[in-house]
Amino acid sequence: MIDVRNVDKSFDKQQILTNVSFHVNKGSIYGMLGSNGAGKTTMMRMLAGILRQDDGQVHIDNAGIYENTKTKQRLIFLSDHLYFLPQYTIRQMGDYYRSLFPGWDEERYEKLRTLFKLDDKQKLSRFSKGMQRQAAFWLALSTVPDVLILDEPFDGLDAVMRQKIRNLIIQDVAEREMTVLISSHNLREVEDICDHVGILHKGEILLERDLDDLKEDVHKIQAAFKEDAFDPDETDLDVLHVEKRGSVYVLIVRGTEKEVAQEIQSWHPVVYDRLPLTLEEIFIYEMGGVGYAFENILV
Ligand SMILES: Nc1ncnc2c1ncn2[C@@H]1O[C@H](COP(=O)(O)OP(=O)(O)OP(=O)(O)O)[C@@H](O)[C@H]1O
């Protein structure tokens, strides 16, 4: 569905994205993670056909997006900075969207009214930040898009509304195979909704995996050894992080569960535990591996 290959992008001779490639399957929800300034918004603006890449290809449904009006009519990009026409109400924006997007579904718009409970005759500029975001989702989902691109989508929404909107997105993915790309710094949220994740760092893709596979591939190990007979540097483990709490080692390691267990067992541990990792932990340790480590500094 979405196919990005070897994309380069610079602004004023400053290289922002370098050789970026990734693929999003139809009916999948892809989380694009990354450090601040990694280039996520730039990538999303290219996918929405707002910016053109310098090199490489940005394809949606096997065709370049930049000059492809037909595909753009089936795609909605919700930017982190929402934009509405000045002085417009939701209803007026809806009429404008109906003229732009052939998929506009008036019946759906009416159904969503009961969920969002916003006054669609009120000027959008009078709404709070969270209400404006709700309005943006109301309008976006009324166009029944095939592709939904969301930059920090839940910013400003309360917990109940986040859950409602998450459910609506999941429903559209399940029922009609909508394809979704989400960028968010809230990894808890990404973890809840995405089936695939990619990490962008300094304009390059660091890692791209199915979320379940990724979790099966990175482990948090707690282990203790007799008379301290363990040296992480002497193992065959791919260690992302190591910490010693008293006599207990806490290791974050990459590899299959079997490989990791075999290696640790060969050191005859007296305690051995494998704990689940959150996406946030995976992100932090993977970023640490490329020198973007967190430091325990208090100032
Ligand atoms: N129009 C522009 N002109 C010049 N530089 C730009 C422009 N847009 C983005 N940049 C630069 O590109 C880099 C990537 O920015 P981008 O907004 O894509 O990052 P991001 O991953 O979305 O960051 P964040 O997580 O902080 O929102 C930054 O260094 C930014 O200053």
Describe the protein's architecture and organization.
This protein is an alpha/beta fold. The chain folds into two domains: 2-202, Rossmann fold (3-Layer(aba) Sandwich); 216-289, Alpha-Beta Plaits (2-Layer Sandwich). Helices cover 33% and strands 31% of the residues. The longest helix is centred in the middle third of the chain and has 18 residues, at 159-176. It is elongated, with a radius of gyration of 23 Å. It starts with a strand and ends in a 10-residue tail after the last helix. It binds adenosine-5'-triphosphate. The site of adenosine-5'-triphosphate has 11 residues, from helix 1.
Principal-axis shape: elongated
CATH superfamily of the largest domain: P-loop containing nucleotide triphosphate hydrolases
- Heteromolecules bound: adenosine-5'-triphosphate
SS-derived structural category: alpha/beta
Q: What's the N-to-C terminus distance?
A: 47 Å
The count of β-strands is 14
What is the typical, i.e. mean, pLDDT? 92
Helix content class: 25-40%
Which sequence of SSEs, written as H and E, runs from N to C?
A: EEEHEEHEHHHEHEHEEHEEEHEH
Major sheet:
6 strands, mixed
Strand order of the largest sheet: 6-7-8-3-9-10
CATH architectural designation of the largest domain: 3-Layer(aba) Sandwich
- β-strand percent reads 25-35%
Poorly predicted runs of 5 or more residues: none
Domain module tally:
2
From the alpha carbons, calculate the radius of gyration and give it in angstroms.
Answer: 23 Å
CATH class of the largest domain reads: Alpha Beta
GO molecular function, one term: ATP binding
Protein name: ABC transporter ATP-binding protein
InterPro entries: AAA+_ATPase, ABC_transporter-like_ATP-bd, ABC_Transporter_VariousFunc, P-loop_NTPase
Domain ABC transporter: 2-227
